[in-house]
Amino acid sequence: MLDIPKQYVFDEQHRPLAVQIPIAIYNQIEEILENFGLSKLMQEVEDDELLSGDDAYSYYQSLKLQNVES
Questions:
Q1: Beta strands in 1-70 (DSSP E)
Q2: Which residues make Cβ contacts (< 8 Å) with residue 8, sequence separation at least 6?
């Protein structure tokens, strides 16, 4: 498990408001969440129809043309 050093921020009534963590740890957490989201998305589309490289390129080109025309 990731050891996260943290500092708590309190208001005048000593109620916790926020937590500060080092930016390096934040970047690690962000990368972990992005990778998790990407893996879930990959699992969801696992059974979808796959395009060949040429078909994917043609489809991409058609999308670019649609965006230029609109």
A1: 7-10, 16-20
A2: 16, 18, 19, 20
Query: What is the rounded CA–CA span in Å between residue 60 and residue 64?
Result: 6
In angstroms, rounded to a whole number, what is the distance separating the alpha carbons of residues 41 and 43? 5
3-state secondary structure of 17: strand
pTM more than 0.70: no
Beta bridge partners of residue 7, listed in sequence order: 20
Q: Which residues contact 10 (CB under 8 A, 6 or more apart)?
A: 16, 17
pLDDT, tens only, 10-40: 999 999 999 999 999 999 999 999 999 988 8
